[in-house]
């Protein structure tokens, strides 16, 4: 009824709609049926006494009043989440979770040292680490399921319906990709692109953005790679190359971390991939995100053999 305060569920549903702009997709994201989602929005409009969303046979869109309310209620909800987060973090019995997304082709094994560091400085913190392809990172950021991500692909990872300046984007590494082929006789010289294309290559599934880096690298050669297999993780690629006469283009840093100091070869034309950390600027977990980001940056700035700060 008019005059009643809206519920948290109603406002959360409206914020989801404001982000995705579609009733069916918003209902899926809210994990309720479309009819139940529509009822939540209708009850919210009744409580406010205004129309927030204009509906027609051609679709739906926010009204001017809806746009104004969306901006204000989003800010209010962010403030409420921060209050809840701050309250929970005071109680030692309620561990705080940091949800970290790692681009699958970067490899999540590097997280081990960061987790060990934070267990010493903040024992109540729980890390949930997800290794994901780019399109899943994009979806998880859009739905607010990740607090901070590391990726090679900034534009493809950022949510579509939010301004880019809503997110902090920080460069943290430049990965040198090398040719890993422990069973092939390659020689000691850096490999040319033609030499790479004359050997069997292991690539990612066609939907992975990482393949775009490879395509750009081989552009202009007028030759297609000899694809031996398409595998979804760098770890699977490494194992495949150890069992078969094929090679893969992988980050040197990942190979060294896994202890594979041999079996890989430099490229005559260097292939680099820039790594970035992304997080939402108004995330209530910023007191945890910022130390995590600083520690990642410090770990890449350290000299070999130095302890992590």
List the helices and strands and how they pair.
Layout (H helix, E strand, L loop, with lengths): L7 H13 L2 H8 L3 H15 L4 E4 L2 E4 L1 H27 L5 E8 L7 H11 L3 E8 L1 H9 L5 E4 L2 H4 L9 E14 L12 H5 L2 E4 L6 H9 L7 E5 L3 H10 L3 E5 H6 L6 E2 L5 E10 L5 H16 L8
Parallel strand pairs: 3-4, 3-5, 7-8, 7-9
Antiparallel strand pairs: 1-2, 5-11, 6-9, 6-10, 6-11
Helix pairs in contact: 1-2, 1-3, 1-4, 2-3
What does this molecule look like?
This protein is an alpha/beta fold and 309 residues long. It is built from twelve helices and eleven strands. The strands form two sheets. Strands 3, 4, 5, 6, 7, 8, 9, 10 and 11 form a nine-stranded mixed sheet that branches. Helix 9 (210-218) links the parallel strand 7 and strand 8 (226-230). Helix 1 crosses helix 2 (23-30), helix 1 (8-20) crosses helix 4 (64-90) and helix 2 crosses helix 3. The chain is elongated, with a radius of gyration of 24 Å. The N and C termini lie far apart (57 Å). Residues 303-309 have low confidence and may be disordered.
Helix and strand run: HHHEEHEHEHEHEHEHEHEHEEH
Q: Which ranges are low-confidence, i.e. pLDDT below 50, for 5 or more consecutive residues?
A: 303-309
Envelope shape: elongated
**Portion of residues in helices?**
40-55%
Radius of gyration: 24 Å
Total number of beta strands: 11
Main sheet overview: 9 strands, mixed
Query: Termini, distance in Å?
Result: 57 Å
- The residue-averaged pLDDT reads 87
Structural class: alpha/beta
Provide the β-strand percentage band.
Answer: 15-25%
Give the helix tally: 12
